[in-house]
Amino acid sequence: MKILKKILTLIFEPLKALSNRNLAEKTSSFFNKNRWMIYVVSFIITMLVLIITYVLSISW
Length: 60
Known about the structure:
With 60 residues, this protein is mainly α. It has helices at residues 2-20, 23-33, 36-55.
């Protein structure tokens, strides 16, 4: 039982730390101020997916 508690603590403690810092609010205010960054981030994510899919031949 203690092992299960430790595993759950390892999963949820980082999430609690991120939520306490208002990360979502800071991120949304940043992207509202810099609209062009949405395009940059989406382009990078798209390129990563294409590289993983076609270059590394990893299927989802």
